[in-house]
Amino acid sequence: MKGLNDLKNKKYIFTSKSINRIYNEKFSNPYVLEDGEIIKNFDNVKRIYSYLIENNVNRKDTIYGVGGGTVTDLIGFIGTTFKRGIKFEFYPTTLLAQVDAAIGGKNAIDYEGIKNIIGTFNIPDNVIIDPLTVISQKDENYREGIIEAFKVAIIDGNISLFLDNIEKLKKRNLGTIIDIIKYSVRVKLNIVSKDPFDDNLRRLLNLGHTLGHAFESFTGTSHGLSVGWGIKKEIELFGKNIDLKSKKLIIEFLENIIPEEILNKDVDMDKLKKYIVQDKKINSNNKIDIPIIEKIGKVDLKSFDSKDVVSLFT
Ligand SMILES: NC(=O)c1ccc[n+]([C@@H]2O[C@H](COP(=O)([O-])OP(=O)(O)OC[C@H]3O[C@@H](n4cnc5c(N)ncnc54)[C@H](O)[C@@H]3O)[C@@H](O)[C@H]2O)c1
Questions:
Q1: Does any ligand 1 atom lie closer than 6 A to the CB of residue 133?
Q2: CA-CA distance, 89 to 247, in Å (whole number)?
Q3: Domain ranges in the chain?
Q4: Distance (Å, rounded) from C-alpha 16 to C-alpha 69?
Q5: How remote is the CA of residue 264 from the centroid of ligand 1, in Å?
Q6: Residue nearest atom 33 of ligand 1, based on CA coordinates
Q7: pLDDT tens digit string along 147-200?
Q8: Interval 41-73: pLDDT, tens
C-alpha cells in the first residue's frame, strides 16, 4: 500500500511547517514552507526555481508536493512551468486536498490579492492519498473537506453515503473516510475528464461558490465552510423547485457539519452584495453562471444577470 512512507528516500520534497513537524521522520530532504494561503505567491515561486536550478533539477527528476491544497497548488504551478514542465507528484495531507485540490490538474498562485489568478492546467504524474494523514488535521479544516466532498455527492447523487455515516465521519472513522475519498475522487475525475479546461460541466463544481466566495471575502470564514454556507443560502434563494425532502436532507447535513457560530454569523446583506458583483466569474455582459440544484444528482448551470442575483437579497 502506498502512503507517506514512500517518501523516505526521495529528494525534492516540498512541504509546510506543520506537516514537517508532524511527519518529519518520513522526509529525507524537505524544503519547508510556511503554512496556509500565504505560500501561494511569486516570492516562493522564485525561491523554489532558484533552489531547483542550484540542485540541477532536470526534466527526469520529480518534485513532490506534500501538504494541503496550498502546497499542491504551488508545487503544481512550479512543476508545470520550470523548464517547461518537470515531473511532479502530490501527497495531499488534508481531506480537502485529497478530495479536491490535488485532483483535476488545476495549479495556481495568488496575485494582487486575487486567489488563483495565475495558474496552469496540468495533471501531476502521480497522486498518492494516505488517508491516515487526515487524523491530525484541525477540526475546522477537516470539516471543509467533508463539505467539498458532499458538494460532489449532491452533483452526482449519492448523498446517503454521507447522511448514513455522519457520526462516523465526524469521529474520523478511517473506513468511512476512505469510502468518501474514493467516491469523491472518482466523481471529480469523471467530471474533469469530460471538461478538463472548465468550459462547461466542470463549472458545476462551483456549486455554493457564488454566495460562498462573497461570504468568505466578507467574513474571513474558511473557504470550505463558506462553500457550505453558500450551498445552504443558494438553496434558500434559488431552490424553489427542489422537493422539500431533498432540501431538508441537504440543509440538515450542512447544519450538522458547519459550526453554529458560522451559520448564525450576522451578515450585512448590502455589504455582501458588493462582493457578489466583484465575482471573477461575472463575464463582460454582466452575466454569471450559477450551478443550481434541480434535485439531488441533478445540478444545472443557469445564467443570471448579476443585478438579478443582487436583487434577490432585497
Ligand atoms: N487546484 C484545485 O482544484 C483546488 C481546489 C480546491 C481548493 N484549492 C486550494 O486549496 C487550498 C486550501 O487547501 P487546504 O484546505 O488543504 O488548506 P492548507 O493547505 O492551507 O492546509 C490547511 C492547514 O492545515 C495544515 N495541514 C495540512 N495537512 C495537515 C495534517 N495532515 N495535519 C495537520 N495539519 C495539516 C497546513 O499546514 C495548513 O496550516 C486553497 O489555496 C485553495 O485555493 C485548489
A1: yes
A2: 39
A3: 4-136, 142-311
A4: 11
A5: 25
A6: 137
A7: 999 999 999 999 999 999 999 999 999 999 999 999 999 999 999 999 999 999
A8: 999 999 999 999 999 999 999 999 999 999 999
Ligand 1 and 189: CB distance under 6 A? no
Q: Which residue has the higher pLDDT, 267 or 149?
A: 149
Determine if ligand 1 sits within 6 Å of the CB of residue 212. Answer: no
Measured CA to CA in angstroms, residue 179 lies from 176, 185, 187 at distances of 5, 10, 12
Residue 233, number of CB atoms within 10 A of its CB: 21
Work out the burial of residue 105: count CB atoms within 10 Å of its CB; fewer than 13 is exposed, 13-18 middle, 19 or more buried.
Answer: middle
Task: Identify the bridge partners of residue 121 per DSSP, sorted by sequence position.
Answer: 106
Q: Which atom of ligand 1 is nearest to the CA of 40?
A: 41
- CA-134 nearest atom, ligand 1: 31
Report the nearest-CA residue for atom 37 of ligand 1: 35
Q: Where are any strands of DSSP class E within the chain?
A: 13-16, 30-33, 62-67, 87-92, 106-111, 114-121, 126-127, 287-295, 298-305
**pTM over cut 0.85:** yes
- Distances in Å between the Cα of 54 and the Cα atoms of 13, 49, 51, 184 are 15, 9, 5, 39
> So what CATH class is 142-311?
mainly alpha
Q: Is 222 in the pocket of ligand 1 (CB under 6 A)?
A: no
4-136 against 142-311: fold identical = no
Lay out the sheet containing 62-67: strands in order across.
Answer: 30-33, 13-16, 62-67, 87-92, 126-127
Q: Answer yes or no: are the C-beta atoms of 301 and 200 closer than 8 Å.
A: yes
User: Is the CB of 22 inside a 6 Å radius of any atom of ligand 1?
Assistant: yes
Which residue from 31, 38, 39, 37 is spatially nearest to 7, judged by alpha carbons? 31
Tell which CATH architecture fits domain 4-136. Answer: 3-Layer(aba) Sandwich (3.40)
Cα gap 56→59, rounded to integer Å? 10
Substitution candidate for ligand 1 out of 15, 20, 39, 96 with most atoms within 8 A of CB? 96
Look at ligand 1, atom 35, and give the residue with the nearest C-alpha: 137
The protein residue with its alpha carbon nearest to ligand 1, atom 8, reads: 101
